[in-house]
Design goal:
158 residues; seven-stranded mixed sheet; 28% helix
């Protein structure tokens, strides 16, 4: 089944339930797939999240944070905290969110989006991201990457 076959699937951009975001993300934090964040971190950034709602809680979420301008780098956003609830994976919800994040980035007048993943990056490559060295990403963001995590960095020009 694909996301298009789900009825109805809508990305909600006004979701501010920080507790639900934290609970959805927690299994991914525990597995090491997501960086550790506290409930307070989710409260602070809840308005940057896009979600696909499930029956009682979000089925998937992702956030877009706009970076402060870095000299020599185009206006850039960071796609982070992409996760899909167990049992809902493989339905295209992650791709739906990536598409929505990219559309939101364009509306925000960003010209690039970066992300980092400890996974294989296939979902990002499928959506037009290209792997880049961390040194090619905006320094204000790449300096915060934890080398011990072994993350791969991807960028999508808009």
């Amino acid at each position: 089944m694909t996301a298009a076959a789900l009825s109805p699937v809508a990305v909600r951009t006004d979701f501010r339930d920080a507790r639900a975001l934290y609970e959805l993300s927690l299994p991914f934090i525990r597995s090491g797939a997501l960086r550790a964040r506290t409930p307070a971190d989710y409260r602070h950034a809840a308005d940057t999240f896009l979600v696909v709602r499930g029956a009682a809680a979000p089925d998937a979420c992702a956030a877009l944070r706009v970076l402060d301008p870095d000299p020599g780098h185009p206006p850039t956003g960071v796609l982070h905290n992409l996760c899909v609830r167990a049992g809902r994976q493989g339905l295209g919800l992650g791709g739906l969110l990536i598409t929505a994040v990219l559309a939101h980035a364009r509306r925000t007048a960003l010209t690039a989006v970066v992300t980092a993943t400890t996974g294989d990056g296939a979902v990002f490559r499928h959506h037009g991201f290209a792997e880049i060295p961390a040194s090619a990403a905006p320094p204000s963001w790449s300096a915060a990457l934890d080398p011990a995590r072994g993350s791969r960095v991807y960028r999508r020009l808009l």
